[in-house]
């Protein structure tokens, strides 16, 4: 199913129930002697054990053998969001997916967790098309400012890049959970355009574009994407982490609230249809009772006339 630096992910199943699951298998020989990597694995498991949200992949169990560690996770049958984006999705579909991504990240942030590697390849879909944030290998509890230079180049936030820049006049003291919001902004741009907002074959040139926030929509893209969607992208791809929109704020953005409004209206219509159906069913049942009485009139005992 997938492969990482120290692990491979395979499809498994529960012997008793037959339920499918994803099993992340880590080879202890490759990292057990490295305290930093060992701590990272332990932290990943601790975070997986803590989280419980419909838009985050569910942790099931952990088994440790002599050579391998097995982390059993929820199986997301729909695959990666990346493949959906490559094939192209509508703005309405993008809004549906992104609102769930925001809900999952908001949950993580409210529990003091920074993911630090949000990208379409780490966003999975279940069989019903629901979002599942996965791969918590770089995640950590963000009680204080973080210092590690990590993440995927095209999705990494400017403050992480600045942290690694030598000779800065006023280098940052670290970074916070806002790095996830930047990565979400890159994801949203990709969902709306099927392209990356920051791209360059030269790594340093790429980082310079990210650090400056040098992105734009082509005239064709700008004409087909709603103003609300473009505004949310701009609030997410704010190079200043202090003014960048938070997950809580983004959930209240007009573009996202429109999705909630659509979902609420859909629910109201469904409830209305169910009530109408019940009402019609009740009326039909009443008519059937009346018709039955007319077809089979009840026998009434009439008083007999008296003789004489």
From TrEMBL:
Q: Which organism is it from?
A: Arcella intermedia
Would you tell me the protein name for this molecule?
A: non-specific serine/threonine protein kinase
- Name the keywords, alphabetized: ATP-binding, Kinase, Nucleotide-binding, Serine/threonine-protein kinase, Transferase
Q: Name one GO biological process term.
A: signal transduction
Keyword field contains tRNA processing: no
User: For the Protein kinase domain, which residue ranges apply?
Assistant: 1-256
Lineage here is:
Eukaryota, Amoebozoa, Tubulinea, Elardia, Arcellinida
Its UniProt entry gives the catalysed reaction(s) as:
L-seryl-[protein] + ATP = O-phospho-L-seryl-[protein] + ADP + H(+); L-threonyl-[protein] + ATP = O-phospho-L-threonyl-[protein] + ADP + H(+)
- Its Enzyme Commission number(s) read 2.7.11.1
**Bilayer-crossing regions:** none
Region spans: Disordered: 286-308
């Amino acid at each position: 199913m997938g492969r990482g630096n120290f692990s491979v992910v395979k499809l498994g199943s529960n012997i008793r129930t037959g339920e499918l699951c994803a099993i992340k298998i880590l080879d202890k020989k490759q990292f057990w002697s490295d305290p930093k990597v060992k701590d990272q694995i332990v932290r990943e498991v601790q975070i997986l054990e803590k989280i419980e949200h419909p838009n985050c992949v569910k942790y099931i169990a952990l088994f440790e053998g002599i050579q391998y560690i097995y982390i059993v996770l929820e199986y997301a049958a729909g695959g990666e969001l990346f493949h959906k984006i490559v094939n192209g999705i509508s703005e309405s579909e993008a809004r549906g997916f992104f609102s769930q991504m925001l809900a999952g990240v908001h949950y993580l942030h409210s529990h003091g967790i920074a993911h630090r590697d949000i990208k379409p390849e780490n966003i999975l879909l279940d069989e019903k098309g629901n979002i599942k944030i996965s791969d918590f290998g770089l995640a950590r509890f963000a009680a204080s400012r973080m210092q590690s230079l990590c993440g995927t180049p095209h999705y990494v936030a400017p403050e992480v890049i600045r942290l690694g820049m030598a000779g800065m006049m006023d280098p940052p003291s670290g970074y916070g959970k806002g790095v996830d919001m930047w990565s979400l902004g890159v994801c949203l741009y990709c969902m709306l355009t099927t392209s990356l907002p920051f791209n360059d074959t030269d790594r340093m040139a790429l980082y310079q574009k990210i650090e400056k926030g040098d992105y734009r929509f082509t005239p064709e893209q700008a004409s087909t994407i709603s103003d609300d969607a473009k505004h949310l992208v701009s609030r997410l791809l704010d190079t200043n982490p202090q003014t960048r929109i938070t997950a809580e704020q983004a959930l209240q953005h007009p573009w996202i609230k429109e999705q909630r409004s659509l979902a609420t209206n859909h629910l109201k219509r469904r409830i209305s249809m169910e009530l109408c159906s019940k009402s019609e069913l009740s009326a039909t049942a009443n008519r059937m009772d009346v018709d039955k009485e007319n077809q089979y009139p009840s026998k009434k005992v009439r008083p007999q006339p008296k003789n004489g």
